[in-house]
Sequence to fold (473 residues):
Amino acid sequence: MKSSLFLRISPLVAALALAGCVSYSGITPHSTAASNTDLSLSSATIQWPSEQWWNVYNDAVLSDLITQALAKNPSIKLAQARLERVAAMAQAVDAGTLPEVGVGLSMTPEHFTENGLYPPPFAGNIYSTNLLMVNAKYEFDFWGKNRAALDSALSTEKAAKAELQSAHLLIAASVAKSYFSLAHFSEQKKVLEMTLAQREELLNVSQQRLAAGLDTQQELHISKEGLPAIRAEIIKLDEQISLSRNALAALIGKGPEATLQVVASFPTDINMNMPDSIPANLIGRRADISAARARVDAANKQIAVAKTEFYPNINLTAFAGFSSLGFSHWLDGSSRDYGVGPAISLPIFDGGRLRANLSSKDAEYDIALESYNQTLIEAVHDIADQISSLRSLAQQQKQQAELQHNAESVYELAQQREKAGLVSKVTVLNAQTAVLTQQSAAIDLKARALDLTVNLNRALGGGFNDQTTASTF
Fold:
């Protein structure tokens, strides 16, 4: 009896003994994660954007356009579809951790040969082979393979969720930038139309002075030469206005006619509370960093899955039901059929397939980790660039405001001197030209400031916050 038992289990013992032939020793990833602390701009606190960061502009038209874009833009729908696909895949992986139960039914008419194993009355006649069986299967997750696979799938789903939020942020920022571009070009067109009217008045004055013998043809030609350039610039601005409207229409998922009546305007002065520094723990509060971090987690779990392939795989299978030839006794107790037992498989010699697979998963982890590092570095660079530009712009605006104040003072003085008969209308108009030039410069700087505030809100993550993925490795 003991000898019989030994003969039965000896193949299993031998297989387990040979399992050591396949090993993953010496196979490890090479990359390391960049440190948030090393890349932080400082450790002081700042005001972070809210989720609906565009409300800071207090513009109902802009808010409505962003709402439409977030609901209709194909990029958002694409990211949502990707998330739904990944979520379904995670559910499928989760289902693999549970027992499988199924029912099988077959009724197969068969003619039995007279020269086979079956004696009469079966031999030479047609009988139905009937089978009704409940089958069950369960995989014991001794090595954590299924758990690791599920964790990997859930991390991939988390990455897809973050990427959806990233798509929301990019679309909202694109709408805001296009809207402020439309406002910029519209405001510049107003100034240019005022400049054109003022230069046409100067031409009229020059013609009158020429007729009165007070000026020569030279002064007249000087008055004329700038007019075509101004008209050309207005035409160019009309083109830019049209292109901005088209961009807005595309972002909200509609045709060009949808934005023809949009009147864009600059908001009143806003306070972005310019940060002196960026805390290390807040750098990760960007959806793209969160997504990259989750993909590293997913790749890491895939390494764990690959390692479990080196261990025995143990399944428990069972079946119970009825089996018979013919229908007369098919469901009788004597036709019961059942069984239960383990199914064990383990690698011994595989030509290096498992080691190659593990090396591949390690390389995928390295790729994911270096992608995370690159995303983190680019995020810090992006934030630093926006802050530097905003600081520089603040100084530029200060200097421009002084220039505009001086130009307005000269213009007011010229008007007073004209009333006193000390200067001609030409002097007044030339002084007004300088004021209009500074107004145009102020509009450019205001548009640049708004563009930078949008960029900064985007760079700071647009209010996205996922503390679970903002941590370091």
